[in-house]
Write a structure and sequence with these properties.
methyltransferase activity
Amino acid sequence: MSSPRSPRSPRGRASPKSLQSPEGAEQPPDNEPHPTNTQIPFNADDDVDSAIEDDGSIISSTVSLSESIFDYRNIHGRTFQSFRTTEYWGPNDDRQNNGLDIAHQFITMLKDDRLFLAPIGHTPTKVLDVGTGTGIWAIDMADAYPSAEVIGTDISPIQPTWVPPNCRFHIEDAQLDWTYQPSTFDFVHIRALYGSIGDVLKLYRQAYNALVPGGWIENFEFNITMHSDLPEIRDNPDHIFKRWANVFFDATDRMGKTARIGMNGTMRKLMLNAGFVGVVEKSYQVPCGAWSSDKKMKQIGAYNLAFMDESLEGFALFMLTEIMGWEYTEVQLFVLEMRKALRNTRTRPYYLVTNCFAQKPEYAA
């Protein structure tokens, strides 16, 4: 994942370039209209446990990845990558990486056990995974398509060394000018770069250039606002779900990035602006906790809660201390409040994720 280093700016607020088209499109508001749960079945009379229940087995079953060969910055016991051109807000230590691998599990389930939804129509020959993180998607893709060459790029070398022979990892900053020759890849995959890209339109244009005519791009992004249909949460602007999202919108604005990429049809608009056609964008409601009456959604919710439980401190630590100027104890109390609210599955919390795919025209040069 990649995000160029920005100076700390506690006073002014930067306007993310990523949400400004060449015509100067305005930045969307922080919050879309509040959704209503229409995708996650549940029994209103169920007395769901407010704790993780047996979801701890999900956390304990994940495998820690290999240690990095680089030295990392240490912030209150958590390690962060400091690349020569980029500083990423998320930790790169085992705990955060375990969370990323858990997220990969429920994202794949959400896509009906598919690694991508783009209708490629043939076996890809060369695939690029931008911001590969732990490399788990690239490894699974290489296993699924052994005749394809799969390349994963990231600023942090946290990927395992034992990988399929058709899978390689490069340390690269996706926000710099790409060095790949035009028309190199059949498929470009991007996932969870929210809050780390200064110019998403540039990113899409570079992907467009790197794709062969008729090639596909797919981008999956999280939305950081947690929701509940309970009026006491939905209508309360001071609830932790609202305060959590708002402070991170503020922090990423100050960094010159965007945490809004999955909102308001932004990916669809920017892909069209970059020249892609056949754009399909879909949002999914993802439960947090095993409160759904549907077996699949119940399991997705359990994995999601495990992901959040592993990741909350990592989400908050850099941005709130280094960007927003909070004290460490303030961050810990904030994380504790959010964790308690997420574990209260009686409120049936959920959030939205957005998947968008599109094609480079077959007649493109």
